[in-house]
Design brief:
This protein has five helices and four strands; from the N terminus they run E-E-H-H-H-E-H-H-E. The chain is mainly alpha-helical and about 200 residues long. It has one domain: Cobalamin adenosyltransferase-like (Hypothetical Protein Ta1238, Chain: A). Helix 1 packs antiparallel against helix 2, helix 1 packs antiparallel against helix 4 and helix 3 packs parallel to helix 5. Its EC number is 2.5.1.17.
Amino acid sequence: MNLYTRTGDKGKTSIIGRRVDKDDLRVEAYGTIDELNSFIGKAMTELDQEKFQDILEDLQNIQNELFDCGGDLANVMKERHYKMTDEPIEVMEKRIDVLMDEPPLLERFILPGGSPGAATLHIARTIARRAERLTVTLFKNSEENDVPLVVGRYLNRLSDYLFAAARVANCRINVADIEYIRGAKVFKNGGRKEKD
């Protein structure tokens, strides 16, 4: 099997249902999800398997879910079945709540960094935000109503998860988060949700 096909040498690529320019907004959106997935894979190599078994399991699931998100965005067939649902979002929200109870309370904004794993998770978080923005723009510019909104919701929640996971990545190995020193104390309840 040849890895190269030469079919994209003139700036076109195939999505599910048609050929488009390689700089098409849809390609940019799912390409950014692929970039995000790669950084999550890098973060996984930087987290100790024993200390971070729960987070590594989360991230493995997230990698598969991101592949589903990319596939859903790439699908413009008239008859299409999307793989993403709201269920992974609900699971992620529960995990965020668990993770946010672990590190010290937040008082100020924090800067990306600390341990290598946390720094990479913060990179992934910012890429998730970019992927979300591109997905929203794709939805607003789509005349065919063929952009599954669940992908945007998933990416929104994922950036929150990655923030929580980055804080835990520092906390479990006793590395302090880096506070934004010019900022005032801004978080009510230490950045945690009110408990019922």
